[in-house]
Amino acid sequence: MTRLSYRFGPLERRGILGPVRAGQAAILGAGALLAILVLDGAPSAAGVTVATVLVSVAVVLAVAPVGTRTLEEWLPVLTTFAWRRLSGRTHFRSVAPLDGSAARRRPTVAVPPALRGVEIREVAYRDRTVGAISERGGRWLTAVLACRVVAFSLLDAEAQERRLARWGAILSGAGGTAIRRIQWIERTAPARGDELARWLHAQRDPAAPPRGTPMIESYLELIGSTARATQEHEILLAVQVEARRAGTGALLEETERIAQGLEAAEVKVIGALTPGQLSRALRTAFDPYARSELAALETADPERDGLAESGAWPLGAREAWDHYQSDGAVHASYWIGAWPRIDVSPMFMDALLGRSSSVRTVAVCFELIPPDRSTREVEAAVTRDRADSDLRRRFGQTDTARQRQAEEATMRRESELASGHGEVRLAGFVTVSGRDEDDLRRSCAEVLEHAARARLELHRLYGQQADAFTFTLPLCRGLR
Question: Which of 4, 34, 149, 251 is most buried, by the most CB atoms less than 10 A from its CB?
């Protein structure tokens, strides 16, 4: 039996003049204009030298690579990071002042700068309330489903392909609805050994002392090492709608429909998160190591439903050039800059999503593209590819393997659209967390190794760590 395979096209980097981006064209044009002005004002050997230097500097700024970007691409990143640092926006501290009298205490919610305008709202649904994340004054509303699945690697090939086909049906079925974006999040969190310790305490012989005997000490040591080496996996699925156009009811309707589609895809939907559970999910994203304290509070108060909104956000945060620190955790966020360019099986991401000793979050955001827009874009892309190819031949240049792959991907995309398939935009991000910078460094090395085995290219988002961290929160962010 021939297994299905999947292939991702190369990242499109189209500019206003073939591969030349608008920023590159502006820098090159400014350099040429300055050179002309210098030559016009000083038509001498010195003027020619200055003009040559200006043109050379413009070319270096426009095309010289530094890491994974050109200097022209680094310039806005450096500028905005420097501005945030000078204005104090790289540091955040939640003072949580109180409004009103002591009898009517209501903590003021303080959120980090990268999340300004984000609120957690209550939405009535049947006989309960559902939490919704509001952005831009209620323009966008996002509901979050908690899910549980059987390990994908344990399924046979037919079951894997069946589930992927049904997931594709969910995405294509969301086209033309009120849904703006869909995001899935898979994250690992430090496993708690307290459940095993309580079991051991309940099952031990009452005549045996709780500590001190070799057998008990051996069990406790095994529980401690297991909790450090293993991680708990959480799966969240966020559904975002344009609330001003569709209304709050559309959020509940579409979320319920997506939940039904997931159940049909043999995914166990635990339910939509309540406001308190949503606050807890956000809090443990900022500080995964606070889970044990929260679990202790929930054990002491079984009726406790997560956290209040004021507890969803960190007490303090600090953005550095290459990491983001919030409370008791340090994070580093990456962008999945390239997906596999060869045929891969449905298991290609198992190396990254499988068992790991690192605390990390993987998030992929999908934006549904209307069919008419997809048709216009692919037709324009075909025309640009042909024009670029003709231009290269006119100047005696040959097509590179990457250019040929891009043209083949465009033609394959046009054929799929003509066959009636839907189209989505997607972006993937990975956030790695550690207790300190040394722990973070070790975890990043492990995650990068796993990503390389999955044929994924991870690019650290230097100078953008605060914003990039929010891309792995259930906010459906990351797509421009």
Answer: 251
User: CA–CA separation, 475 vs 44, rounded Å?
Assistant: 59
- Domain annotation covers residue 101: no
Alpha-carbon span 192 to 227, nearest angstrom: 6
CA distance linking residue 366 with residue 180, whole number of Å: 9
Euclidean distance between CA atoms 330 and 309, whole angstroms: 22
Asked whether the beta carbons of 310 and 97 are under 8 A apart, the reply is: no
User: Are residues 187 and 263 both part of a single domain?
Assistant: yes
Residues 266, 380, single domain; the answer is: yes
Residue 130 lies in a domain: yes
How far apart (Å, rounded) are the C-alpha atoms in residues 389 and 392? 5
**71: containing domain:** 1-89
Instruction: Return d(Cα 187, Cα 183) in angstroms, integer.
Output: 13
248-264 and 157-174 helices, crossing angle to 10° = 160
The label of the residue with tokens 């591969």 reads 19
User: What's the DSSP call for residue 266?
Assistant: T
Query: What is each CA distance from 130 to 31, 249, 294, 365, in whole angstroms?
Result: 56, 12, 21, 22
Do the domain assignments include residue 475?
Answer: no
DSSP 383-431: HHHHHHHHHHHHTTPPPPHHHHHHHHHHHHHHHHHHTT--EEEEEEEEE
User: How much is the pTM?
Assistant: 0.82
| CA 184 – CA 472 distance, rounded (Å) | 9
Whether 426 contacts 286, CB under 8 Å = no
Number of domains present in the structure of the chain? 2
pLDDT in tens, the chain (480 residues): 566 777 776 666 655 555 677 778 888 888 889 889 888 888 888 888 988 998 898 888 888 888 778 888 888 999 999 999 999 899 998 865 444 444 445 456 789 999 998 999 999 888 888 999 999 888 899 999 999 887 776 777 788 888 888 888 888 888 778 899 999 999 988 765 444 555 555 555 566 665 566 766 666 566 555 444 456 789 999 999 988 777 788 899 999 999 999 998 889 999 999 999 999 999 999 999 888 778 777 777 777 778 888 889 999 999 999 999 999 899 999 999 988 878 888 888 888 887 677 899 999 999 988 777 777 878 788 887 788 788 778 878 777 777 777 777 788 777 777 776 777 889 999 999 999 999 999 999 999 999 999 999 999 999 999 999 999 999 999 988
